[in-house]
Amino acid sequence: MIRKNPRGDLPRVHPDAFVDPTAILCGLVIVEADVFIGPYAVIRADEMDADGHIEPIVIGAHSNIQDGVVIHSKSGAAVTIGERTSIAHRAIVHGPCRVGNGVFIGFNSVLFNCTIEDRCVVRHNAVVDGCHLPAGFYVTSTQRIGPATDLARLPRVSADASEFSEDVARTNNALVRGYKTIQNEF
């Protein structure tokens, strides 16, 4: 469902993107080319700051927002998801937040008030809150990363983890093309 926010902003979805009919996009949301937005995802850019301003939620080209993902932002702050990035099932991305290119965010993970640079992997049920994660870092499942985390103790993304991330992105790009061919059948 594509709908306006109370201020009247309407999402802009590139014609080459696929948004599942059960997903909800509300307000100042920009979806770029070849993006897959899965069933029951919710992307809401509807809260304003004290001056009535809203920054957009931008989903970069060739990225995928999987089933049940929630993307929202506090007081109109920006949320940017880079290109070829995967946000896996039931993850929460709450702005302000910037996620770089070629990033993998695992099932049920939570991102808030953070920057995650290019080619990072955040595995399942992890939390990244209030910090800047430099490019190429690996966050293990169930780990919590915050401002006090010693990033020198975090591993770097391995070749296997990088290959897995690329495969997820590639698979979901194929889903975009597949669902676009049958979208008038449902």
Give the CA-CA distance, first to last residue: 14 Å
Taking all Cα atoms into account, the compactness measure Rg is: 16 Å
What does the overall shape look like? globular
Q: What fold name stands as the CATH topology? A: UDP N-Acetylglucosamine Acyltransferase, domain 1
Counted by DSSP, the helix tally is 1
CATH top level is: Mainly Beta
CATH architecture: 3 Solenoid
Low-pLDDT segments: none
Quick description:
This protein is mainly beta. Helix content is 13%, strand content 33%. It is built from 1 helix and 20 strands.
Protein topology:
Elements: E1 2-3, E2 12-13, E3 18-19, E4 24-27, E5 29-31, E6 36-37, E7 42-45, E8 57-59, E9 64-65, E10 70-73, E11 79-81, E12 86-87, E13 92-99, E14 104-105, E15 110-116, E16 121-122, E17 127-129, E18 132-133, E19 138-139, E20 144-145, H1 159-182
Parallel strand pairs: 1-4, 2-5, 3-6, 4-7, 5-8, 6-9, 7-10, 8-11, 9-12, 10-13, 11-13, 12-14, 13-15, 14-16, 15-17, 15-18, 16-19, 17-20
Characterise this structure:
The protein is globular. The mean pLDDT is 95. It has 1 helix and 20 strands. 13% of the residues lie in helices and 33% in strands. Strands 1, 2, 4, 5, 7, 8, 10, 11, 13, 15, 17, 18 and 20 form a 13-stranded parallel beta sheet that branches. With 186 residues, it is mainly beta. The protein has one domain (2-185): UDP N-Acetylglucosamine Acyltransferase, domain 1 (3 Solenoid).
Task: Give the key terms.
globular; single chain; 186 residues; Gamma-CA; 7-stranded parallel sheet; UDP N-Acetylglucosamine Acyltransferase, domain 1; Carbonate dehydratase; CA_gamma_LbH; mainly beta
